[in-house]
Amino acid sequence: DRKPVDANISFPNSVERLYCFSKISGAKTPTRISHVWYYGNAEMFRISLPVNAASWRTYSLKNIRPHETGSWRVEILDALENKLEVINFEISAP
Question: What is the 8-class DSSP label of residue 80?
């Protein structure tokens, strides 16, 4: 139903895929946000997502390979590249 389940900050390396959800409230005009996925300090994936209404939900997903253990984060940016939020999480080996 496009709603987060099992939200957490720590995941096993068997997770295969993670989703980052954003809820936008109060957008005045159609715009865009970006989700930028980092593994350590390396940018792994960036996607620009449309925001088409004052109240809007959107998401991105990232496939996680078993060897990509350690610190991750997703930076959520507005259309001008200003940070709106940073979500930190860990991928751990068994």
Answer: T
Q: Residue 40 contacts by C-beta under 8 Å, 6 or more apart in sequence?
A: 70, 71
* Rounded CA separation 74/84 (Å): 11
Token pair listed for 14: 């068997």
Q: pLDDT of 34-50, one tens digit each?
A: 999 999 999 999 999 99
User: For the whole prediction, is pTM greater than 0.85?
Assistant: yes
Q: Tell me which amino acid residue 28 is.
A: K
- Give the Cα separation of 69 and 91 in Å (integer): 5
Q: What is the Cα–Cα distance from 22 to 84, expressed in whole angstroms?
A: 10
